[in-house]
């Protein structure tokens, strides 16, 4: 067991090292891409009613844009090396602190959505696989199709309209906690955890209530790929030799399905879940916008629209790092789900 | 372990007692929702957003602020009337070159330090010397050098002007010359940053009606009332104890919030939502045409074929004004088309803009095109930025259809905001729609800032010696009748040259709970929360 852990750790370490050049490439590429884009942040932000050439030059200088691009790049890399990601013109704050404040919001939302999605998708997928071609299968297919075709901002607005505007069950869709609830002392940045640590269950309920609608909106969108993959993987493993053997041995049905079939089917689901998670984190910008969720994706979009270089570069770097970490985690989980993976 | 548990318990207790206290003050709290964000606490920092301007007028005082007047039954700011803030009174010398301010003796900064003439001098020096936004603005009021500002005694302050300038006082009432606590600011200044720009960007050193309680850029700003502030009209602190400004990016959600009564006031709804809420009649909707703003269809007068007056006139005769006004704004605003000028001359010169004698007349448009030597029309692009898409998109579609009828083929270009501003600044967009806003909407100010020189705001890239000369002359003309005569010439010339086509002045729709009172449309197009109270 311990040797298995050690090989997993070694493999993860090697993977991590081999992803460093990719991270560096992403850094340089985004840097250059932002400068190629046809928008000048200095002109955009010099929008005062009497903004002239002088003001534009001022902003350009304060952003370091008056220097040649190679010099800017070297300075930027040096800054990133020392943990300085620059300053956002949109919020006026250092990018690093903006990302640090906003990342927990995005992660909390994404994790909740992924959990909801997994808890819905896996049973749906299993049910569809067990009764292939039946009404249940078709119903699952229908639900999945519906979830995928309705864009998140439509389903988000619909949910708000129904549960906040018409029924009044949901709190106003304005961020992570009700504005009149005092936030918990900062521990992790995850409100559900911080409220629990502070023992403030009233606050915890308020935060959870705010989370429900956006998390469901996001989950709706990703149930489909997860359920479809579960179904396919289950079909494959249900038709395989070991399940036939188990059946012929007269093992209980529950044990066959959960212990043998599902455990073997879970590998592709994990892979997809990893990918889905990383994509959700970046792609939930519409959900964040609709629910005024102070996350990193809507932050990056605002910055992109105003050609605000530093936040966009910081965001892409963050996303790339998260991708690496998620891939590592999936790798490690593989090893746990299927010990054969760690044998090289 | 035990201590940890006790402190947790204490925290929980604190949290639970804090809740009812907050609930009690809901009526005394104003919750404002907006789509935009505040990015600095000092309005002078290059790159400040409009919302940052709005905030700074709550946390800081100026020497003077604008008075208010009624325009078609709506309260708007009055450029010609001033209300004292930190100045108790002021006198102007008979030659108009010296303005002497008597400062309030009871005014204190948030930290308790009294406000003196030294603070005023430091703040105005900063506005004209440091690398700040104030510089470019204040020079439009002949305020350019620290030598013009003199401390007479602790509560008397003097401003000297090189020429009598009508806009000098008005410039002291805009957002840049706010008065800082100079002792506090100087203590935070460094050798590289003598004007404490970096510190003031993140901190406030003011004497204003509100104190910042919490500031999360891009999320919320919570303000607490300064109980000692008495610079309002009635010698009492501002109406609301707390102001919460929340950034809600989705316009439909903002409309929902205010309709459900969860938000108290919003000024940036979509025109459809505002019209809808007005029809439902549950909320108070104050719709004020922004009389200091104009939306244009603009051409770059240096790029062919728009360098030909006839081409510009042809387009002016082919625009479907009425349809565009209805489709883009749902009729919410003041149209600037469809006037009749009896003798072809502008009926008035005291103000700009005035409704233009343009209307949709395709036959006339075809004649103009033929006169320009292009009877079969031409192809061009029409650009607008994504941020304006809500109004510009339907407008562009109608424009394309109508110009198609006279043979002008239009390709619609929707550009990201930063790209559009860059292209406009580089004078590379031939045909587009944009808006302008003047803080100090006097006739000459419009002409001087939007029709002269190679600056970004001269959308049409007009370079007309006549307009330049008249506008400069009008600036220093003390006689109202002569000023209006210059204005009449300018307005007439503007129509004859047709450098760009003024379309309308969009309304600012302030939607609020019926209990909220005192809303006034302000020059910076933000809410001055000091005016508001709850019935």
Characterise this structure.
With 344 residues, chain A is mainly α. Chain A has a domain at 95-305: MetI-like fold (Orthogonal Bundle), CATH 1.10.3720.10. Chain A is built from 14 helices and no strands. Chain A has helices spanning 2-36, 41-45, 53-62, 69-81, 95-130, 135-149, 152-166, 191-198, 201-238, 241-248, 253-283, 285-290, 296-305, 309-337. The relative contact order of chain A is 0.15. The mean pLDDT of chain A is 84. Chain B has 535 residues and is an alpha+beta fold. Chain B folds into three domains: 27-60 and 208-283 and 516-535, 3-Layer(aba) Sandwich (D-Maltodextrin-Binding Protein, domain 2); 80-182, Dipeptide-binding Protein, domain 1 (Alpha-Beta Complex); 293-508, Dipeptide-binding Protein, Domain 3 (Dipeptide-binding Protein, domain 3, Roll), CATH 3.10.105.10. Chain B is 34% helix and 23% strand. In chain B, helix 15 crosses helix 16 and helix 16 packs antiparallel against helix 17 (480-497). Chain B is globular. Classes of the chains: A mainly alpha (344), B alpha+beta (535). Chains A and B meet through helix 2, helix 3, helix 7 and helix 13 of A and helix 1, helix 4, strand 10, helix 8 and helix 14 of B.
């Amino acid at each position: 067991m311990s040797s298995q852990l050690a090989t997993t750790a070694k493999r993860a370490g090697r993977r991590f090292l081999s992803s460093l050049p990719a991270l560096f490439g992403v850094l340089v590429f985004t840097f250059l891409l932002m400068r190629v884009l046809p928008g000048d942040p200095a002109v955009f932000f010099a929008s005062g009613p009497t903004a002239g050439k002088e003001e534009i030059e001022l902003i350009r200088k304060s952003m370091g844009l008056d220097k040649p691009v190679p010099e800017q790049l070297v300075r930027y890399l040096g800054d990133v090396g020392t943990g300085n990601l620059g300053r956002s013109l949109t919020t006026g704050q250092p990018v690093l602190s903006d990302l640090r404040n906003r990342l927990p919001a995005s992660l909390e939302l994404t994790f909740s959505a992924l959990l909801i999605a997994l808890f819905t998708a896996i049973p749906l997928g299993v049910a569809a696989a067990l009764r292939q071609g039946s009404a249940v299968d078709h119903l699952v297919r229908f639900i999945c199709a519906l979830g995928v075709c309705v864009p998140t901002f439509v389903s988000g607005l619909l949910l708000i309209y129904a549960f906040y505007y018409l029924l009044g069950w949901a709190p106003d869709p304005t961020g992570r906690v009700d504005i009149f609830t005092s936030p918990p002392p900062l521990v992790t940045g995850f409100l559900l955890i911080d409220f629990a640590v502070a023992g403030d269950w009233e606050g915890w309920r308020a935060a959870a209530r705010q989370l429900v609608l956006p998390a469901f909106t996001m989950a709706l969108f990703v149930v489909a790929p997860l359920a479809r993959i579960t179904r396919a993987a289950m079909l494959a493993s249900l038709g395989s030799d070991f399940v036939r053997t188990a059946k012929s041995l007269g093992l209980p049905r529950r044990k066959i399905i959960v212990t043998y079939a599902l455990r073997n089917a879970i590998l592709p689901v994990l892979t997809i879940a990893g990918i889905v998670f990383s994509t959700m984190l970046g792609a939930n910008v519409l959900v964040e916008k609709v629910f005024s969720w102070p996350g990193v994706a809507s932050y990056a979009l605002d910055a992109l629209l105003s050609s605000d270089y530093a936040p966009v570069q910081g965001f892409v770097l963050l996303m790339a790092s998260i991708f690496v970490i998620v891939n590592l985690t999936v790798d490690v989980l593989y090893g746990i789900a299927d010990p054969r993976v760690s044998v090289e | 372990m035990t201590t940890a548990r006790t402190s947790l318990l204490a925290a929980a207790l604190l949290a639970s007692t804090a809740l009812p206290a907050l609930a009690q003050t809901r009526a005394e709290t104003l919750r404002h929702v907006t789509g935009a964000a505040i990015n600095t606490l000092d309005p002078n920092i290059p790159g400040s957003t409009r919302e940052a301007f709005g905030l700074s007028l709550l946390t800081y005082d100026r020497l003077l602020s604008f008075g208010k007047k009624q325009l078609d039954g709506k309260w708007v700011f009055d450029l010609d009337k001033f209300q004292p803030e930190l100045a108790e009174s002021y006198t102007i010398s008979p030659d108009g070159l010296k303005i002497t301010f008597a400062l309030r003796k009871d005014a204190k900064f948030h930290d308790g330090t009294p406000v003196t003439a030294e603070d005023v001098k430091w703040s105005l020096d900063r506005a004209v010397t440091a690398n700040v936004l104030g510089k470019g603005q204040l020079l439009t009021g002949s305020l350019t050098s620290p030598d013009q500002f003199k401390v007479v005694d602790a509560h008397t302050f003097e401003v000297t002007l090189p020429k009598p300038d009508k806009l000098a006082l008005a410039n002291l009432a805009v957002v840049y010359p706010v008065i800082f606590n100079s002792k506090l600011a100087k203590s935070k200044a460094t050798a590289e940053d003598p004007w404490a720009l970096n510190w003031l960007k993140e901190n406030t050193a003011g004497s204003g009606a509100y104190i910042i309680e919490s500031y999360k850029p891009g999320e919320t700003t919570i303000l607490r009332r300064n109980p000692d502030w008495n610079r309002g009209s009635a010698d009492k602190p501002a109406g609301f104890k707390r102001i919460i400004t929340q950034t809600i990016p989705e316009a439909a959600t903002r409309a929902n919030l205010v309709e459900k009564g969860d938000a108290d006031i919003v000024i940036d709804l979509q025109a459809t939502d505002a019209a809808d809420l007005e029809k439902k009649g549950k909320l108070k909707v104050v719709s004020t045409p922004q009389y200091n703003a104009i939306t244009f269809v603009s051409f770059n007068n240096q790029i062919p074929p728009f360098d030909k007056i006839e081409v510009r006139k042809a387009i002016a005769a082919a625009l479907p004004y009425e349809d565009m006004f209805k489709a883009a704004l749902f009729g919410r605003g003041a149209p600037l088309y469809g006037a009749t000028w009896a003798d072809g001359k502008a009926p008035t010169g005291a103000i700009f803009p005035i409704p233009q004698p343009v209307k949709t007349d395709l036959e006339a448009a075809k004649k103009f095109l033929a006169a320009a030597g292009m009877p079969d029309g031409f192809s061009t692009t029409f650009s607008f930025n994504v941020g304006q898409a809500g109004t510009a998109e339907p407008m562009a579609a109608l424009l394309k259809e109508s110009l198609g009828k006279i043979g002008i083929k239009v390709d619609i270009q929707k550009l990201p905001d930063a790209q559009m501003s860059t292209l406009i600044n580089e004078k590379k967009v031939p045909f587009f729609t944009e808006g302008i806003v003047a803080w100090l909407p006097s006739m000459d100010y419009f002409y001087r800032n939007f029709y002269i020189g190679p600056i970004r705001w001269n959308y049409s890239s007009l370079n007309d010696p006549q307009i330049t000369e008249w506008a400069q002359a009008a600036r220093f003309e003390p006689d109202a009748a002569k000023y209006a005569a210059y204005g009449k010439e300018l307005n007439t010339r503007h129509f004859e040259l047709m450098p760009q086509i003024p379309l309308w002045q969009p309304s600012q729709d302030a939607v609020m709970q019926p209990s909220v009172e005192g809303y006034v449309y302000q020059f910076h197009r933000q809410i001055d929360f000091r005016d508001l109270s709850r019935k």
